[in-house]
Amino acid sequence: MAGPVRVLSIDGGGIRGVIPAAVLTEIERRTDRPAAELFDLIAGTSTGGIIALGLTAPGEGGAPRWRAADLLDLYRSEGAHIFSRSVWQRIRTAEGVLDEKYPADGLEAALQRYFGDARLRDALAPVLVTSYELEGRKPFFFRSRRAAADPVFDFPMREAARATSAAPTYFEPPQLVNQADGQRYALVDGGVFANNPSMCAYAEVLAEDRDAEVLMVSLGTGQLNRPIHYAQAKDWGLLGWARSIFNVVLDGVSDTTDYELEQVLADRHARFQIELIGASDDMDDASPENIAHLEHKAAELLADPKNDAKLDRVCAALVA
Question: Could you report the per-residue pLDDT of 287-309, keeping only the tens digit for each?
Fold first, then answer.
């Protein structure tokens, strides 16, 4: 009898993708297998979408181009370039109030280096990456199985990664053009509706098989812990809320989805998350010090006896 459908879901969170990348490095170490062989579907949003695509990007001889440890290095080596801006950019945008906070050059250069010309249809395991289409006002899903079946839905992986990580106020939305039919899409970060994409991934599985048994491994990017004090928020207008609402949406969506999957899947839902005490919860703090703090939080998460035992159970189920 076939086993459960093994699903990996990775949250959004900018530079905090260090945490799920480190957890995945440990999963690959314990199982001695690449993630593309361990999971039947890999879903990601924003930074999690970049990881999902990176884990499934094809390399030489049919092997994955990258292992999780390589993607962890991406944050170390590219983070400061991705979240970099000149003094003129800071002045011109009024610190991100009048225009996006960062130019997209550093992000796009990193995605070109890591993905090259690989396309969605080439993914080594089924992958689902979230985005939101502004002109059509609807969720947009990059799905490798659909891309393989119909070129109208196929895109370069680097473009899917750019779209899913176009966080409002941080990066300019890209406009993607599908060469198969000329359709244009104006896309932003999927975190605006599915920062934790595990429910989207669950729906994807059930669309294929309503009776499927699912094992969901869900990786967070750190729980936000800075309170929004009532004394401040009660008098906020448009500008005041504009500075905080995106993080509120991301955090609320992730926690809600976590709750929903816990009720639906119970012990077949393994969530790995940690509070960001001792590390910045800013998604763009790519300083070497904060990256080191984030790696320490990942090590702390993995060292927790409950998480260690849970990870052992997950790894055993993945290779069964």
Answer: 999 999 999 999 999 999 999 99
